């Protein structure tokens, strides 16, 4: 397996996104999102794309994991771990070594254990409130 950085096309994004049963946004929306993404990470098994994740944020204090997908046939085979490791290394390589930054996400219920194993804390936690979101149409 290998991970390629910043090679994710809108079409490939939609293929991977829908592979896990998520309802696809329109291609124009994907193009806009990708153009405003800090970095994309796409996992391949030989030439077959098998997973992706986008990194968004301000580049200085806060980063956010978005659209993290591993196609069903490759789940629980280390693809997600490889993608997270590449994403975290990318952040470390692109920030001042003296900085501490926040890496956040909203997890599906099925992925909670995966993220906990990777060092993420469930929110709410003892010192903070819950993660929240709102869809705007």
UniProtKB/TrEMBL annotation:
Keywords (A to Z) from UniProt: Transferase
SUPFAM superfamilies: Acyl-CoA N-acyltransferases (Nat)
InterPro entries (alphabetical): Acetyltransferase_Butenolide (IPR053144), Acyl_CoA_acyltransferase (IPR016181), GNAT_dom (IPR000182)
N-acetyltransferase domain residues: 1-137
GO MF assignments: acyltransferase activity, transferring groups other than amino-acyl groups
Gene3D superfamilies, sorted: 3.40.630.30
PROSITE patterns: GNAT
Pfam families named in the record: Acetyltransf_7
Name this protein carries in UniProt: Acetyltransferase (GNAT) family protein
């Amino acid at each position: 397996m290998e991970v390629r950085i910043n090679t994710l096309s809108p079409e490939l994004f939609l293929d991977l996104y829908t592979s896990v049963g998520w309802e696809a946004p329109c291609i124009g929306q994907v193009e806009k999102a990708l153009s405003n993404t800090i970095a994309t990470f796409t996992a391949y098994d030989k030439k077959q794309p098998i997973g992706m994740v986008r990194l968004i944020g301000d580049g200085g204090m806060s980063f956010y994991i978005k659209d993290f997908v591993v196609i069903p046939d490759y789940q629980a085979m280390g693809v997600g771990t490889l993608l997270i490791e590449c994403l975290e290394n990318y952040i470390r390589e692109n920030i001042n070594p003296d900085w501490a930054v926040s890496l956040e996400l909203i997890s599906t219920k099925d992925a909670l254990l995966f993220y906990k194993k990777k060092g993420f804390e469930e929110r709410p936690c003892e010192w903070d409130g819950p993660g929240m979101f709102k869809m705007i149409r």
